[in-house]
Design goal:
27% of the residues lie in helices and 28% in strands. The protein has 161 residues and is α+β, with helices and mostly antiparallel strands. The protein has one domain (5-156): Alpha-Beta Complex (YbaK protein), CATH 3.90.960.10. The strands form 3 sheets. The protein has a 5-stranded mixed beta sheet. It has a 3-stranded antiparallel beta sheet with strand order 1-8-7. Strands 4-10 form a two-stranded antiparallel ribbon. The longest helix is centred in the N-terminal third of the chain and has 12 residues, at 5-16.
């Protein structure tokens, strides 16, 4: 039997004593639709973004729905002058997960985690290692399990027009 990304997520969560609930849902064309399918507020869907540092290493940025990375804020917190988003192929190589399924939980490499301060104190949904799946977890437990740095690292998403 082949291990799926979701199997890796569940195994890593169990090893860390982190309670995760996997929910399966149809593909969603928007953040709002995904939230509707999951029965939650869009702000509680958290994107796990892979960010490349200038030295070739990576980090995870946990960004709540309706927000985007503030590059200046994240650079200041990380203490570097340059950060970038890698290509989908590089992100897959760095984490073992395809874009849209990425999560620090079960990543092939345990990169540092930086969580936006707005994710704390609530139950969140994030990637579960496989398309059409979301992982529900207590944000504070996730932050503790990964020794995440919590800071203001995002700005409100500007609507496209």
């Amino acid at each position: 039997m082949t291990s799926t990304g979701t199997d890796r997520v569940l195994a890593d969560a169990e090893a860390r004593g982190l309670r995760i609930e996997i929910a399966h849902r149809p593909e969603a064309e928007s953040l709002e639709r995904a939230a509707e399918l999951l029965g939650i507020e869009p702000s509680t869907i958290v994107k796990s973004l892979v960010v490349k540092k200038h030295d070739g290493t990576f980090l995870f940025a946990l960004v709540p729905g309706g927000r985007q990375i503030s590059w200046s804020k994240l650079r200041a917190v990380v203490g570097v002058n340059k950060l970038s988003m890698p290509s989908p192929d590089i992100a897959l190589e760095a984490t073992g997960f395809e874009r849209g399924t990425i999560t620090p939980v079960g990543s092939s490499t345990a990169w540092p985690v930086f969580a936006d301060e707005r994710v704390t104190g609530t139950r969140i949904a994030l990637g579960a290692g496989s398309h059409g799946s979301s992982a529900f977890v207590d944000a504070d437990a996730l932050i503790g399990a990964y020794h995440a740095t919590v800071a203001d690292i995002t700005d409100e998403t500007v609507p496209r027009g």
